[in-house]
User: Fold TetR family transcriptional regulator from Plasticicumulans lactativorans.
Amino acid sequence: MNEAPSGRRERKRQQTADAIVQAARELFAEQGYAATTMEQIAARADVAKGTLYAHFPVKEAILGDYMRAELRAGEAQLAPRLAAAADTRARLDTLFACAAAWLEPHRELLGPHIAYRLGHLRIDAPDPAQRSGLDAIIGRILGAGQAAGEVRGDIAVPVLAAQLEFAYLSVLLRWLAAPPGFDLPAALTEMLSLFLDGAGVRDER
Assistant:
């Protein structure tokens, strides 16, 4: 059966977008995000500037696709470790430790990425395509935790996942604003403890 014209167009469009993101990935690695221009990305991807801007209006939009692709690749590699983790806390700790390990050498990318996402946040009509995908990973872990009786079940998983994702974001913003020496993995561990255990003083009697 022949492929419909609309299907061919969409496949071609996706191939072009993928080539642009790959070109940007290479340039970011070679010379840094700030030094990379849209013109350089177009030249590396071998596309006209008009084609580039038709797919991505600004460099930050390319960065968003790049970050989402990295998360998808990281999730596939992380899956066996999450499956082997003993419980919900261990799975979340593994997730955030791996996130920190990736973010620390890519710190330059994080500020522009967060600023662009927050600047284009639509509270009234959220676009699932613009989400990072982290909320879905967290949601699956918390959902399994609820099923195992390790996470309270009176709050919906999407609400819990959103709360934890924003707590994670708050740590990243602190890290970006902090002087050298800020311990990102330790701060994420502390954040997770606060989320799972609460801030109240426990009566050990």
In short: The mean pLDDT is 92. DSSP finds nine helices and no strands in the chain. The two ends are 73 Å apart (CA to CA). Residues 134 and 163 are 12 Å apart (CA to CA).
